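User: Please fill in residues for this 260-position structure.
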C-alpha cells in the first residue's frame, strides 16, 4: 500500500512538472523570438492548454514557432509582419502535428499496426487549405455548435453539484451560454465572450475553495523551476495549474473554443 501511494505521488509530481514545463517553454521561446516584453494573451494560453490536453508534443510546438519566426525574419523590412500572438503560429503547428501523427501509424516498435493516435485531427491540407466562411473564422460552425452544446451540459451538471456563490455563478454562465447558442456570432467575437465567462468562473472558484493547501502542494512540486524562470512567467503558469486543479475538482469544463 505504501509503495503504491509513493508511486502515485511521484507520478503526480512528474505530471505537474511536465505540465509546468510545457507552458513555460512555449511562452519563453515566444517572448525570446518576439524580441519584446510581450506576454501571451489569455487566448494564447487557452490555445497552449488545448495543445497540452491533446498531447501535442512540445518539440513540435517549439519547432513550429521557430519556423514561423524564421520565415518572418527572412522577409524584407518593408513587408515584415509583426507576430503578436501564438495564433499566427497555429496553422504551422497543426500541420506539423498532423504530419507527425501520420508518421506514427504503423510504428509501435513491435511491428504491429498502430492506428492514428488522434483520429479526430484533420490532415494538414484540410486544416490549412479548406475554405472558411466569413462567419466561421478559425473554427467550423458545426464544431462550434457541438462544443457549446457539450460544455453547456457539463456546466449544468457541475452547477447541480456546486453550492453557494459558485453555483450561482455557474447558473449565470449557463444562461449566458444558452443566449450565445441561440445567436450567430463570428468565432473571434464568440471567443471573447467565452473568455470573459471563463474568467468569471475562475474568480468564483478561487473564492469558493480553500486554496492554501493546494498552493503549497503545487509550490513543492515545481520548486526546481522557480529560479530558472522570469517571475511573471512562473506566476502565470502557477495560477494556471491552480485553476486547472480547481476546475477538475469541481468538474467544470473550459469554455474556450480551443477546447472544442
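Assistant: Residues filled in for all 260 positions:
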Amino acid at each position: 500500500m505504501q509503495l503504491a501511494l509513493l508511486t502515485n505521488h511521484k507520478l503526480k509530481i512528474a505530471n505537474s512538472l511536465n505540465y509546468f514545463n510545457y507552458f513555460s517553454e512555449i511562452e519563453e521561446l515566444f517572448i525570446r523570438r518576439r524580441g519584446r516584453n510581450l506576454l501571451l494573451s489569455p487566448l494564447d494560453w487557452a490555445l497552449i492548454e488545448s495543445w497540452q490536453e491533446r498531447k501535442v508534443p512540445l518539440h513540435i510546438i517549439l519547432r513550429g514557432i521557430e519556423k514561423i519566426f524564421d520565415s518572418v525574419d527572412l522577409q524584407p523590412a518593408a513587408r515584415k509582419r509583426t507576430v503578436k500572438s501564438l495564433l499566427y503560429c497555429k496553422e504551422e503547428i497543426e500541420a506539423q502535428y498532423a504530419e507527425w501523427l501520420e508518421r506514427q501509424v504503423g510504428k509501435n516498435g513491435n511491428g504491429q499496426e498502430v492506428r492514428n493516435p488522434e483520429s479526430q485531427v484533420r490532415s494538414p491540407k484540410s486544416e490549412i487549405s479548406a475554405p472558411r466562411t466569413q462567419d466561421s473564422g478559425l473554427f467550423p460552425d458545426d464544431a462550434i455548435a457541438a462544443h457549446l452544446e457539450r460544455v453547456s451540459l457539463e456546466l449544468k451538471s457541475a452547477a447541480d453539484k456546486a453550492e453557494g456563490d459558485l453555483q450561482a455563478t455557474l447558473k449565470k454562465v449557463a444562461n449566458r451560454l444558452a443566449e450565445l447558442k441561440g445567436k450567430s456570432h463570428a468565432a473571434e467575437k464568440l471567443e471573447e465572450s467565452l473568455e470573459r465567462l471563463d474568467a468569471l468562473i475562475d474568480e468564483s472558484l478561487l473564492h469558493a475553495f480553500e486554496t492554501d493547501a493546494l498552493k503549497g502542494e503545487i509550490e513543492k512540486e515545481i520548486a526546481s523551476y522557480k529560479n530558472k524562470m522570469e517571475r511573471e512567467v512562473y506566476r502565470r503558469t502557477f495560477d494556471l495549474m491552480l485553476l486547472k486543479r480547481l476546475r477538475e475538482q469541481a468538474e467544470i469544463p473550459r469554455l474556450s473554443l480551443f477546447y472544442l
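For context: The radius of gyration is 20 Å.
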